[in-house]
Structures are given as structure tokens and as C-alpha cells.
Amino acid sequence: MYCIHCGVKLQENASECPLCHTPVVTVPMPASAGRNRYSDRYPEPAQNHGKVLTLALITTVMIAAGISCLIYCLRNAGGAAWAGYVLLGEALVWVCLIMPWLFPRWRPMIFLPIDFVCIGGFLLYVCLKTGGSWFLSFAFPVTALVALLTLAGVAMMRYIKQGRLRLMSLLLIAIGLSFMLIEFFQHITFGTPMFVWSLYCVASLCAIGIFLFIASLIPPMRAYLRKKFFF
Amino acid sequence: MKKQWKKQWYRLDNAALIFPAIIRKNWNNVFRVAVTLHEQVDPETLSRAAADLKPRFPTIFVRLKAGFFWYYLETIQEAPRAEKDFAYPLTHMSRKELKTCCVRILYYENRIAVEMFHSVSDGSGAMVFLQNLTARYLEIRYGMTVPPEKGIVDWQEEPHPEETRDCFQLCTADRAIGRAEENAYHLTGNPEEGLFRHIVMGIVPTEKLLEKAHEQKVTVTAYLAAVMAEAVQKRQEEEGKPRKRMKPVKITIPVNLRKTFGLNTMRNFALAVNIGFDPRLGDYTHPQVCQLMHHQLAAETIPQRMAGRVTKNVEEQTNAVLRLVPLFIKRIVMRMVYSLSGESKGCLNVSNIGVISLPEVMKPYIERFEFIIGVQYSYPNNCSVVTWEGNTYISMIRGIRESELERLFFSRLVEEGIPVEIESN
């Protein structure tokens, strides 16, 4: 049995040519007629038995440390005092670093918003505890801005296959400009002078962004960057 | 009386140093040699044969360990048991698996396969091991006696010291030859899901292949490299690039240094040379490409040039400052160097292991041999060749969906008048 397109001889049970995918025109023989060259065994997905144990151990140590701090504060200061920071800080670390490991896959579009909500909550607690008034005018918008840019970057790297370089260049420019916005929030909250340090960030990030944008328009340059920096 | 097992360790040979450092989560450098018998393989007998050979081939039954400055290989207590082959060859060998054993012994119906991490040995070393494994298997299974000739060793004797040595250290020259050369064209495609590897094997009559190679006054390796280079160039042309933007087409040929330097080892002892042509200089005829490949291969593989290139590698390995750098830093540097230059100098490998010869008593039991090298990290196709009893088995592996390169290569052979029988998974 030969492929009418490539001219190569095919296996007895072949339904198409493996080279050009031209279907075999004669009635294919049953699968048992030709010998299957490979088995039906697929490699098992990697298992990690030690992972759950390690995470449980870390969680236990964190809970023990938190409770110790709380008891110490309750006995000596009569209230939660600084133990509140420790407990909420530990909770934040657990949510951001430990919790994702409990799931079979890291899903950034689910975990990252949760992380940023927790960070916002922690900052609100610190603000209220210290009697400050900087949460709504500074911490909240800055956290929201960082969350937005991070999610945009992650979504771009994970879900978009085409035109990544161009999007990355635009994201870099957006990050640069966001520094100006952060300095603006800093100005209205703390009364610091406007646009001092952020201009350096804007200039450098926009320069890199523009370079990448131009590179994305030139195919050989794009291919060169891709080859040199693949990981 | 069975001798008491004693743990041994081996430094990685010069060629093996890079492979552990560049392991990725989804890729590492593994290859396979396989033999197909006329009768179904018995896994129990195969496991027994492997266990019998363990003391004779101490550098094969090893696991990968990390020291503070370098990786090293450590012998294992028990030979791995034969396990059923997978649905596709060269399934990923994880770091965890390498820490247990760097070799897999697989069976499926009539086939015995050995998959090996490249730090352990090269294709020639692995093929010697497979031949001996097959010989021992046949001895146990059929009660025959295989004479120690044509690569078969006496499995009961002690391993020869030269088999376990790093021969790269023995063939250096007074002057090193640099590695600088122009980057080659990069084959691309849509990656196959789940690390699946496609294998297309072309079986061609060796006599016909030799006849065509001799028509061009070149060796079979040079002839196959020429046909492959032409197929790669067609792929580059199909991309529609203007000629001035094209890249050189270069085929990487691993050269067995055992014959070049008359040294014998079971460790790695091969060096790759890149041969090809620059399409920016104009079109080439088939005889011209054959001649280019043949003469470049001949010029690059003379012992003096090989020694010079080995010297360059050995100098880096023996540099006092580099030796004192901790492994975790070395690993980062090696990965960077490999990313920037390791795979950019050639389009793909054409690895020809040559003609397999075995004692006459074994031949009636054996149908064929196979040799398959894995895909590289950044280029998706590779090709390996082995010859047994009048047939040449050309295995083309790919990690992408497109089979265009295989089609161009094998249909070119058919156009040349060489009959090709195709098998695939």
C-alpha cells in the first residue's frame, strides 16, 4: 500500500499517510492486521505526596506562632495590641503563598484578585488601628492600580498567544504612567511635591516600552528577541 | 558467591556536564535505543538479564546526584525492572526519576527498548549496552551461549577500567579551537499537547541508499544530511522570506570519537559538528549540496580539529576559577549560555549510529534495531539513523503537529529512486 501523494510505502493498517495526511483510498485493513508499534500506556501525571504534609506543617507553625503572640498580648497589654498585625500578616502570607499550593493548578485570575483584596483589607486594618486617614485616598487606589496592572500582565502572558511583545510594550508604558498616578495620590494624601521621582520611572519604562513596540513591528528583530530571551 | 555491593560514584564526563544543568520542567536530553525480536519479550527474563549486567556496566546503572560544585553519577543497588513501554517514545524523565535511575528498560510485544539520560552515555555506548542486554536475554531465554565478540562482552568479568573513564581528557591538543559560528535557521511549528512525541520511521534498503550516496561520491551520513538540508531549506523558502533575510541551513552531526582516537569507553565520547550551506549566496544543486556536506564533514572530523574542539571544552571544565564556583551559580550560567548559543548553531541533528553487527548466533532472533534521539528544547525536529541487516531505519521525531519536514525529506528520497516504507505512532 503506497501513498498516492508522497510515494512512500505505508503500514498495512494505516488509514492515512503520516507525512502528508492523504487518506488511504483502499478499504483499510482491521487494526489487528498490522502490528501497533507502541502501547496504549501513557505516563502518569506526577504525584507530590510530600506537598500536603509540608503545607500542613507550615500552617500549624504559623497558627502556633500567631496564637502565642495573641496570648502574650492579651496577658501583658490586655488586648490584641500588636498581635493583630501578626495574625493578619500571617493570614495574608497564608492566603498569598500557601493557599494556591492546595489546589492542583495555580489559577492566577482567581488567586491574584483574592490576594489583592486581602492586601487591601490588611492595609485598612493598619489604617484604622493607627488612626490614619490615608486608606481611601492612597492605599486603596494604589492597591487597585497595582492589581489591575498585574492582572493585565498575567492575563497577557497566559492567555494571549499572538502579539505578546506589542502588548508587553504597551503594558510597560502603562506601568510607567501609573507611577505618576501613584505620586499624585501621594501628593493629595501626604502633601508631598508633585512629580519628583515618578518622572524617572516614566522616562525609563516608556523608553523600553517604545523600543519593544518598534521591535514588535519589525519581524526579524522580533524573532531575534524571541530567540535570545526564550525561557 | 554474590559479591557485596559497594556504592561508587563517577564525575560527569566533559560532554555530560551540561545536560543536568539545562533540565527543564517539561524537557531534558534523553534518547532511546531499541531492538525488535522475532518473538514476544518476557519481562521477567529481561529484568533478570538487566540485573545480571549491572556489575559489568557500572556506569549505566546510575542515578544523578548534585554535589556542591558539580553534579555526579552514583551507582544504584538494584537494576531497574523492565516496564511496559509507553504510547510514545521518550516520555519525560523528571528530575525525581533521574535521582532514582537515569536509565529505563522498557518492553512492548517483541521490542526491548532502553531510554537513557544523555549524561550517562551517548548513542554508541547505549547501543553496546542494548546489544549486551539482548545477548544476555537470549542466553537466559533460550539457553544459548553468545560468544564475546562484535561488541558483546563477557558479562561475568570485571568492567575494564577504560570503559568507565572520561576519554575527553585524553585527547586534548595544545591549542583550543573556538566555537564561534553563525546562527542557523530555526525550525518552528505548533507544539503538540501534553509533551506527545510523533515518530515517523522510514525504512529504506541500505544497498539503494549506498548506491545513491556513491553516485554522488559521498558517505551515507553526508548524503542524508544533504537531503535533510535541502528539505530544511524548502521549509525556509515556504516561509516566504526574501533571500537576504534567510539564515544558513546547518545540520548537526554527532561524531563518534571512539574511532577517531582509538579509545573505548561506555561514557559519552562524541562531538557534534555543524555542516551546511548559506542560501543567501544563491541556489545550490543536489550534487553541490552533497559535495558541500561531504567535504565539510571530512574537514571537520579530522583528529586534529576534533582534538582542538575537545580542548576548548576541557579547558572550561578544568579552569580553576570555574571549578570553585558553587553548582547553583554554575547552573544559572550554564543555562544562560545554553539558551544563547547551545541550540542556535544547527537546524536539527542527523545522528547516524552506523551499522550494527552482532554474533551470528544472535541474528536469527533479531528483526531490527531502532535509534531515536529526543527533540531539542528550542528546535522541534530531530533525526536518527541506524542500519541493520540490509535496512536503514531513519527515525524522525517531532514535538510539533506539522509533519512537513518529514514529508519533504522522505518524498525527496522517493524522488531519488530510494523506496521508503513509512511507520508512525
What oligomeric arrangement do these chains adopt?
heterodimer
Lateral arrangement of strands in the main beta sheet of chain B: 10-9-11-13-14-8-15
Number of strands of chain A: 0
User: What is the approximate shape of chain A?
Assistant: flat
Query: How many H/I helices of chain B?
Result: 12
**Average of per-residue pLDDT values of chain A:** 86
Provide the CATH architecture of the largest domain in chain B.
2-Layer Sandwich
Beta-strand portion of chain B reads: 15-25%
Percentage beta strand of chain A: under 5%
Q: For the CA atoms, what is the radius of gyration of chain B?
A: 21 Å
Q: What is the mean pLDDT of chain B? A: 91
CATH fold node name of the largest domain in chain B: Chloramphenicol Acetyltransferase
Rg of chain A, rounded, reads 29 Å
**Class computed from helices, strands and strand pairing of chain A:** mainly alpha
Largest interface: A-B, 28 and 38 residues
Please outline the helices and strands.
The complex is a heterodimer of chains A (231) and B (425).
Chain A: H1 49-76, H2 83-98, H3 108-130, H4 135-159, H5 164-190, H6 198-217, H7 219-228
Chain B: E1 9-11, H1 18-21, E2 30-37, H2 43-53, E3 62-66, E4 71-75, E5 83-84, H3 95-98, E6 103-108, E7 111-117, H4 123-142, E8 198-205, H5 206-215, H6 220-238, E9 249-256, H7 257-261, E10 270-277, H8 286-300, H9 303-318, H10 320-324, H11 327-342, E11 348-355, E12 366-373, E13 381-388, E14 391-398, H12 404-415, E15 421-424
Helix pairs in contact in B: 2-4, 5-6, 6-8, 6-12
